[in-house]
Design goal:
Layout (H helix, E strand, L loop, with lengths): L5 H9 L4 E5 L3 H9 L4 E4 L3 H4 L11 H14 L4 E5 L8 H13 L4 E5 L5 H9 L4 E6 L5 H4 L9 H17 L3 E5 L3 H10 L4 E4 L7 E4 L1 H4 L20 H13 L13
Helix pairs in contact: 2-4, 4-5, 5-6, 8-9
Bound molecules: 3-methyl-2-oxobutanoic acid.
């Protein structure tokens, strides 16, 4: 199968074809997810929670992200590979460039940064140096202590306006992809329609261009799954089948269903 690139994902958005994304942290799961037809893999800093057992993503280091990115890259066949920049690894544009280079050299095709309008300069710096950026806005788990918990964002009119403008300005600054986490479905739909770059949603309704779930959540390994999670392992006899079923549900629009969405 032909390698999936940023251009492939952009044309999928233009043609209205949904993009299926999953987090992945090692080589074996990368191979299985590729065989199951996944479009993109995200080496998420959620590895701090699902692999290391922390209660947030804050303890994850650049060295750990580099190690897992290289592991996933070795098992990856054709999927587009995004790697998370961990907490405090992009506190200035220069710092961001130095650390993003490590992830790209480990095999990532794009890096993801969480934040707000303050990401603008780092996005420009990385993009000018040949590093595509995914900007992660809405619920940004690295800022959990500022946000006061893992809460839905953009519920008031003022917050929604701010998120919409932030998305547009970050796209204008050069972000090649956007990730929206835990925002009302109607806001996510409006943001996705208002920018040309692919928008990945998690807890952001059915109208984003792509969906992502944390691998361990969609395999039913989380005791307290969030509202937006579906366990795709139910009635399946293998992980490959579960991922195939996730990919099919994203592509035909049956996931996320209404019960997985924040509607206000
Ligand atoms: O780190 C991660 O796995 C993420 C997901 C929540 C999308 O950013």
């Amino acid at each position: 199968m032909k390698a999936i690139t940023l251009n492939t994902l952009k044309s999928m958005k233009e043609q209205g074809h949904k993009i299926a994304v999953l987090t992945c942290y090692d080589s074996t799961f990368a191979k299985v997810a590729n065989q199951a037809g996944i479009d993109a893999l995200l080496v998420g800093d959620t590895l701090g929670m699902v692999l290391q057992g922390h209660d947030s993503t804050l303890p994850v280091t650049v060295e750990q992200m580099t190690y897992h990115t290289a592991s996933v890259a070795r098992g990856n066949e054709h999927a587009f590979l995004i790697a998370d920049m961990p907490f405090m690894s992009y506190s200035s544009p220069e710092h961001a460039l130095k650390n993003a280079a490590k992830l790209m050299q480990a095999g990532a095709h794009m890096v993801k940064l969480e934040g707000d309008l303050w990401l603008t300069e780092s996005i420009k710096q990385l993009t000018q140096n040949g590093i595509p950026v995914c900007a992660h806005i809405g619920l940004t788990p690295q800022a959990v202590h500022v946000l006061g918990g893992f809460k839905v964002q953009g519920k008031t009119e003022e917050q929604a306006k701010h998120l919409l403008e932030t998305a547009q300005q970050l796209a204008q600054a050069g972000a090649a992809m956007l990730l929206l986490e835990c925002v009302p479905s109607n806001l996510a739909a409006k943001i996705s329609k208002s920018i040309k770059i692919p928008v990945i949603g998690i807890g952001a309704g059915a109208e984003t261009d792509a969906q992502v779930l944390v691998l361990h959540d969609m395999l039913g390994l989380n005791d307290k799954p969030a509202k937006f999670v579906q366990n795709f392992m139910v009635d399946k006899t293998s992980i490959k089948e579960a991922i195939e079923s996730y990919v099919a549900a994203v592509k035909d629009g049956s996931f996320p269903a209404l019960q997985h969405q924040y509607i206000f």
